[in-house]
């Protein structure tokens, strides 16, 4: 298959699904406040676009800041856990616990600690995103060929050098699996963060639209969320291709 | 799914009721009716279910449940979006909600709201309400700082940047009393008659009116009995609710119930009845405030017709 | 004093005796070869001498100091090439230089000067996956060499090379050996290679490995093509063939 | 370090954190409806234990059913995506989209489609859990040594045999990274599912406790959630050791 | 008709000519060896004949049918052993049997009968990571053999074996070769091995590979230790040494 056709497949398939949806909604006469037809959603998107712009920017900013923070923290945690066995054992359970607590149930604590600004949203995104990255990084680090490690150690490599030269590159494929998972979560993380209270953002927009039963606006927001998430995912995928050239 | 299909057949007696929120003292009459066998006596088997966040109106609109709990603003909003729901009983006669603040914030009248921070959900309706109250007292709404507190509760949010918030007195206000926290409270219905909307209300899908009026009648007959029991026996009614939902704080439920039992029927002739004027005025106000995109026919938004005639 | 002294090494894996009892010694600047059946424990022995594995019992002394479980002292070329798949050839071979503190640029430059000798010129930007088996082996050898320790352990370094390339590598190896007075332990299956290069040849038994015999190779250096027709050489080869 | 000490580290560290928390709350006199002290939480846990049991069982059942379903579906999807390039290209964007849609925003649709029973909760858990598994499986499958594939193909292996003999085992380490991530999410997924409307479950319990301002009960529920999640995680980790013996 | 006929194969990687122009032919039941410098393109040639890689131009006919890009026809032992790390040795070597439809139990049983010949007895439950280099090579050879095609391609199968083990493997290989009348293409760097085993030896040039010369080996079979002292053998060896 040629490259252009490759790119047309997902597009074509999406169009197919949208068509089925449109026909299905029209044929069954499903009211638009239950499930609006794609045409209505697109229409609503365009008529609300200028004023959704601000909300979109807010959410995107939260998501990107949180995502980048998550990557940085993941590396620090994974490095520490990999190098110092005491830290690994002490922190592992806490990592998991951090994922099992439904954020909404401890929302009051978040507000008391971090107030109502952009900070709590970034922290929520960070919390949602860092876990898949850490676990994948650790998985990747564990899968490194011991003989390669031994060889470099026998050449006098320090822990940091081993990490940089062997462990990190060897765990890049696994790391990118985690990064792709997180990339897909980042925008949704920001939306969850906005439930903790926000003035702007697509989460706020959706809540308001939902409360006034403008389902088509909710779906217009979901469409934007989806496009943003796919965009971040795509950037990560391209980075993967660039950073792992030896896999091609 | 099953209950729904059968519920739409004229002769069956199964039906689903979807709450508006977690079970609380607003719903006591329903739990009493179920526990005391009032529904059973009418040949009904009522399944009480909890809603997905904000989903009750849509579920009723889609006929996936026969009865639901909502509130006047939501019904008005829904009808302006052509969702075919309709109120058939007002659970509490007058609006028991209002703006509360810790005593230390010194907010006694709407005038005092100037230069204070409001913590809410950021809906246009909240803005409009605060504005309406303040304008009546020649206060400047622009001086209020609006903060979206999302899912945080009253007690938490006033710890941080928030000065006042919108509460249901019968629950959060009562909890403050139990906690020994002194509040200032501005009651919506006392300050501004237009804001004396019905909350909560019981709703149905319009179609049910034609398809199975008998079901509605039987349901409301039993439900009325439930609320009447709660009005007359607050303590016992509270215990029935707690027995069904033991996760709730028993002290809070009992205190709340004592407060609400007096409010269910209020000054009306009987429980559940709603005035056309209040529906009309509130809808008009909402339209003027641009809270709804188009006017609604209030007479179609509610009916007292199915309430027991006595 | 011996440069390397290995005494009574024993190595047992779970339920497998790999090395029974091996002692050997390498004088300063001596080149010794180890010949032995496949699977007898030769690589295991080098792993132990390099400090990567610990013996079940026995000791390894280098310059009189015990190096049990301590790696980093010797240059070691494993039987597997262990090239890092994510580094191109020039970066792979310059790893030891970078680890010794050279900047990447300088390390590359230094390594570059050896590429012709190793027949890797033109492949500096290529990833290991795109090299032939023999080229990978040569890259691994160059990397080992650049570590520049006075002790080198080489585990079948020329196994995948043709006779010509092998000969070139032999001459190059003799060159360093003579110039730097390294002490070298060399594993091979090629008897000619063993005799040609070494001062001493150890023949090992079947697993669990023991030293069957230790043969001194007293052929004058520098050696060259004529060495192969030296009667001492021929006798030695015959002797080894008989023992094996 | 000996094995027993290894196991004591996380325990000891947890106890340390709990002590700090207890002292902190007591010293600053933080009211219990904001952040209850661990002693109060434990106390509340034990006095509510018998009657939290039912909620716990309900949530655990949803989580486990959803998790197992997620594993099954992940394998099917990953197999199809790996074998049929058309499917991979067509489905990849949909996979990501499935993760970017905040479930709560389309909650009414869930009820309308799947009713009030356990089904919608299982579906939510499945939706939350399958994504990390699929992405990690695909990442693992992509990292397989092409030469191994070629060798077996040259011996006449069918796609299914290749999958079974080479691709699957080779991607097990990566798969388990994903599985661990999902295991940590499974209980939380069930809690989110319960927000779509449920009669029983720890999510219901927490909502009710929160709405009646009993913060210590919320934390008691979080404690149970955490223990359950750690338990599922542990089972997955043990399975990993058993299924990947060649890594030890 | 030739069993295998390779005509005018050319292979170019991005900016590297690996094979310039190679034609060769193998008659039914013939054993041919390929000798050539490291990195000249020998493995690439076998990859092409096996159908795993496509040539830039040229054709590969087996029994007169073109097999460009079609794998599965021949038994092929790669230069890398490619043992699956997650299968123990017995399961690794019985893969071709399982792929041919035998149950796992039967496959294991069948494979088990060869373990002694290959010096792997006692290692059936061991994972490849715990084998020595030579043992891995023998396991890979056994796996290739069990595929039982009438055409076998062997890429340096005995590179990591000592002389003794190698000799055992030679005898075993001659045995199958005589019994099954397989056609074999064999890559090696060992000139003795090439002459001893083959009916014909191809010498390749430096990369990009071309056939330098094609030498018939008319030494009577079965061959044995006396073959090495046959004057024809010695002449042939000298000739090859001169050309290389
Ligand atoms: N990590 C290990 N675990 C268990 N057994 C091992 C391990 N490493 C090696 N062995 C076993 O020890 C024995 C000796 O292996 P070693 O690699 O030292 O052999 P060798 O002499 O280098 O052979 P070759 O010439 O084939 O490379 C073999 O039987 C091998 O199976
Ligand atoms: N996938 C690839 N991409 C680019 N170049 C390659 C690739 N595979 C092999 N080559 C190049 O092709 C040439 C021939 O390689 P090949 O493996 O065929 O050599 P060989 O004759 O088998 O050598 P050896 O005796 O060392 O095994 C080498 O220069 C190698 O770098
Ligand atoms: O953690 C969540 O609230 O989704
Ligand atoms: Mg070895
Ligand atoms: Mg080769």
From TrEMBL, chains A, D:
It is a multi-pass membrane protein. Belongs to the binding-protein-dependent transport system permease family. Pfam families: BPD_transp_1 (PF00528). GO terms for cellular component: plasma membrane. Residues 56-236 form the ABC transmembrane type-1 domain. This is ABC-type nitrate/sulfonate/bicarbonate transport system, permease component. InterPro entries: MetI-like, MetI-like_sf. GO terms for biological process: transmembrane transport. It comes from the Bacteria. CDD domains: TM_PBP2. It is found in: Cell membrane. The keyword Transport applies.
TrEMBL record, chains C, E:
InterPro entries: AAA+_ATPase, ABC_transporter-like_ATP-bd, ABC_transporter-like_CS, ABC_transporter_ATP-bind, P-loop_NTPase. Keywords: ATP-binding, Nucleotide-binding, Transport. Residues 4-231 form the ABC transporter domain. The keyword Nucleotide-binding applies. One of its GO terms (molecular function) is ATP hydrolysis activity. The keyword Hydrolase does not apply. Pfam families: ABC_tran. PANTHER family: ABC TRANSPORTER ATP-BINDING PROTEIN, TAURINE IMPORT ATP-BINDING PROTEIN-RELATED. This is ABC-type nitrate/sulfonate/bicarbonate transport system, ATPase component. It comes from Desulfonispora thiosulfatigenes DSM 11270.
